[in-house]
Amino acid sequence: MEQTRKDSRRIEHRQGKYACTFRVNGKEVSVDASPMDRVVDLLRDGLHETGTKISCGIGRCGACSIWVDGRLTSSCLLLAYQVEGKEVTTIEGMGTEERCSIVQEAFMNEGGFQCGYCTPGMIMAAESLLRHTPDPDDEEIREGLSGNICRCTGYSGIIRAVKAAAANLQ
Amino acid sequence: MKQPEYQRRPDAVPKVTGSLKYLTDRFEENMLIGKVLRSEYPHARIKRIDTSAAEALPGVHAVLTHHDVPGLNRFGIVMPDQPVFCEDRVRYTGDAVAAVAAESAESADQALAAVVVEYEPLPVLDSVEKALTPEAEQLHENGNILHEASYTRGDLQQGFAGCTCIVEETYQLPRQMHGYMETEGGVVVPESDGGISVYMATQHGFKDRFQLSRILETPEEKIRIISSPIGGSFGGKDELNLQPYGALLALKTGRPVRVHNTREESIRAGLKRHPMAITMRTGADESGRVLAHETTIYADTGAYATLGPAILEFAVEHASGLYPIPNITTTGVSVFTNNGVAGEFRGFGGNQVTFALEGQMDRLAEKLGMEGTKLRARNMRKPSDTGPLGQGIAPTDGGRMILEDVTTWQQLPLSNAGETAWVKNGRGGAVSMHGGGLGYGRLDPSGGRLALTKEGKLEAAFGFEECGQGIVAVIETVMKGTFSCNEEDIEITIGDTNKVPVSGSTTASRGTSMVWTAVENMKASFRRQLLIEASRVTGTAAADLYLGAGGVHKRGAEPSLFLSYKALAEYVQDGDIETHTSFDFPVTPDEIDSGHYLYSFGGVSAEVEVNLLTGTVRVLDLKQSVSAGPVMYPQGYRGQIEGGGIMALGYTLMEDAVMQEGRYQTENFDTYLMPGVKDLPDNVTVKPREEVMEGDIHGPRGVGEIGTIAVAPAIAEAIYQAIGARPEKLPVSREWVLQQIQQRGLLPWNKPEKIPGG
Ligand code: FES
Ligand code: FES
C-alpha cells in the first residue's frame, strides 16, 4: 500500500522512489527520487552538487536558481518529475576554477559578492539575462536580477559586475 | 576589456564558481539528519513529554530531551539562561523541547510529529508594557527586567532651564531580521577519541567551544569548532543556535549528524534586532547650543538574555552621539517578554538610538529655524573631547569630517523636482558615531600568529571568521603590504579552533583593526627570523637580504629573488619560524564601564522620492561619508558601506518581523521583505575619509557596522523635506505616508483635513 504524508514544508511525499533521469551540465544522471522531491534536494543531497544553494525554499530569493532547458528557474519550486528528461544547467556548468566565465570574472573584479551564498543563483540569473539581452539598460538589469536577494552587497557591486560583463561580452 | 579596479578577494574563485563548500554543504558518509522540535506556545508549562512513539519509528536513531543533556542544560554568551531543551516551561515559540536524528529528513519529520508534548498555556507577555505590570508572571528568577543601564552628567533641570527650545518625541524601532542567506546549520562528527568536530557557523569559535563544553560536560580540548566560511551572519550567528543539538545527537548516535534550519525554522528560533521605544527630550538655547538631553529606552529583549545587557549599554552610551551635551540623563531598561529573542545585530543598539538622536536634532533645527547641518556643526565634538560617557578616547576629528561632506551634499539640487504633481522629493542628512571593540570592563583579548609552513608559505593565522565581510582579503592585503610578498606566498588560516590562536570574536567592527595591529606587532620579529634563517642557509649577511615576492631577495642582485620561501622551508623544521602576539583591544584609560575608546563616524545624505498617490518612498540617492582610519581593502570597505546602507534602507522602509501574541506573523521571505535590486537607489556613493589625528597609532577601524547607523534618520528627514511629516516609527509604512499626505492635503484635489491635535 502506498503511504502519503506531509513534511515540514507541507509537501506531500510518497514512499517509493524511482530513478529520475535528466542531464546536469551536459551529463546524464539518474537519481533515486520520488516524483515529489524538490530538484534542489536532488542536486544537493543526491548528486552532491552543492553550488546550487537553498535559502527560502519558496521561490522568493533565487539562491537555488538553475536553468532547465536554458530557462532560469527556482529549483526549490521544481519537482523531480518536472526535470525528467530535461537539460539542467547549474553554477557548476558555468565555469570552472581554472576557467571562469566572463560574468564570473566580472563578479570577482567588481565586488559582486561578499558571503557568496547568493552568488551562484545571482550568476545564473545574470548569465541568463545577458544571453537574452546582451546589452541591457539599467532597468533591464534590475528586472533580470529582481528574483534574487543579496543581503550582503546591497546590489551595487552586482550591478557593476553585470555592466562590466555586458561590456566585456561585446 | 575593462580593467579591474580592485584586487580580488582570496575566496573569489570558489565563491563565483560555486565550488566553495559551506558548512551546510557538507556531506559525511553514514550521516544522519537531525531536527529540533520547537515549542507550540509562546508561553506555557510543559506537563508531559512522551518520546516513545517517536523512538519506535523506523529509521529514527535518537530522540533527545532535557534528560539527555550531560552538563549544563543552558546557553547564553553573557549569562547562560536559555535552555538547550526546556524542562517544565517554554518562554517563546523558538524554545527547543526535543531533537531527533534519523536516516532521512522525512523520517526526522515523522519523528518530530510523533513526539507528544502536553502544554498548559500561560498568559503571553507579548509587550514590554505587559511584562512590566506588577501582576505579570515572572519569566525568570530575577523577574522580567533583564538589565538596567543609565548615565548622568550635569544637571538636567538646570540644563533645560537655560533652553529656549525643547523638543520631545517617542521613537519606535522595529524587529529587524538579519536575513543571512545561509540559514543556521552544518554537521557534527563524533571523533574516535570521544570528542567531536562541529562544522557550524559562528562568529567566535572559542566561545562556542566553551559553551558546548559546559553543555556536553566534555573538556574543551575534545571539541573542535570549524566555523568558516559563513553565508552571512551580521551578528545573528554569534550566539549558539543548532550546535548543541547537532553535538548531542552525534554523541548519542555515534554518527555524523547534519542539522540545517529551513527558513521557517530559522525565523522562529533565530535572533532579531531589539525593538525599542525611545523617548527623548532635548533642549537648546537660542544660538542652537544643545544644553540638555534626556533619554529613556525600553528594549524588548524577548525570552532570553544572550547579549541583551551589552546592547542596552551600547545604546545608553550612544544616546548623545557626537554631541558633548553638558547635561544628560539616559536610562535604559531591557525587558524579558515572550517574543522572539533579540540579540546581537550589526550596529548593536546604535542604530535605534541614533535614529532617535538625529531625529531630535532635525526637530530642534526646525524649531530654531536653522539648517540641520548647521545645528549639528554647532554641537559637534572637538578632536580632544571625551567620549559620550565622559571617558577618554583616541582623539579624532571624524565627526567634523563626515559632517563636512554631509553639509556639501545637502546643498545638491533635487533631481526631477517639480516634474510631476504627485511626486515629491526631499533630501535629508544625518551623522553617527560608533564605538569599536567590546568596551571597558569586558574581556577583549586578541592576537595572531605568523609562521613559515613546511610548504614554504607565509601563514597568517587568526581566530576570526569569514562571514562575507572579507576578513581574508584584509589579512591578505595587510600581509602583502607589510612583507611585499605575493598572494601566492600567503596562506590564511582561520575558522578552526584546532589551528588558530585566540583573536576574540568576529564582532564589534574589531576584525580589521585587530589583524592590522597583530601584524604590526609581529612583523619585526617575523621578518628577522626569516632573514636570519635565510642568512644562515645561504651564508649571506642578513643585512643584504629583504623579504619580497616569492621569497628572500638580495640587495643589488639581478634578479633580486635569492631564495624562495619554499626552498627556505626545506631547511627549517615546522614551527622553527613562528611568531605570536596577544594583546587587548585598546580601551579607555578611564574606569567607565562599557565605554569605548576607538570610534568610527558615518555621515549620510539621502534623497527620496515620495509618490503621493501610492505612498511609496523610493530612495534615489544614498551618499555615505565614513571616517574609520585608513582603508585596508578598498573593495571590501566599499562593499561594507554599500551593503550596510541597503540593509539600513530596509530597516527604514520595509523590514519588521511583526509578532502577535508572541507568534511571528512572518515565516519566510514572502512576508518579510528585504530590499531587492529594484529598491537600490539610482546612485550610491561611498566616500572614505581616511585622515587620522597626528600621532594616531591605531590604524584602521572596522567598517562592518558604521554604514548601517545614520541611514534611517537621513531617510526620515528626507521624507519630511518631501511631505512635511516626520516619521517617528520605523519602518515608514505606506499607510502612514498616505495618511500624512491626506491630512496635509498635498494632492491638488484633496482638501486638507484638520490634523488631529495639530
Ligand atoms: S531557495 Fe529557491 S528561491 Fe529561495
Ligand atoms: S553575497 Fe551574501 S547574500 Fe549576496
Biggest interface goes to: A-B, 63 and 67 residues
Q: What is the CATH top level name of the largest domain in chain A?
A: Alpha Beta
Instruction: Kindly name the structural category of chain A.
Output: alpha+beta
Strand-residue proportion of chain A: 15-25%
Rounded to an integer, what's the Rg of chain A over CA atoms?
A: 17 Å
Q: How far from one another are the termini of chain B?
A: 60 Å
Distance between the termini of chain A: 59 Å
CATH architecture of the largest domain in chain B: 2-Layer Sandwich
Which structural class matches the secondary elements of chain B? alpha+beta
CATH superfamily heading of the largest domain in chain A = Beta-grasp domain
* Helix fraction of chain A by DSSP (H/I, runs of at least 4): 25-40%
Which CATH top level class of the largest domain in chain B fits?
A: Alpha Beta
CATH topology of the largest domain in chain B: Aldehyde Oxidoreductase, domain 4
The proportion of strand residues of chain B reads 25-35%
Mean pLDDT of chain B: 95
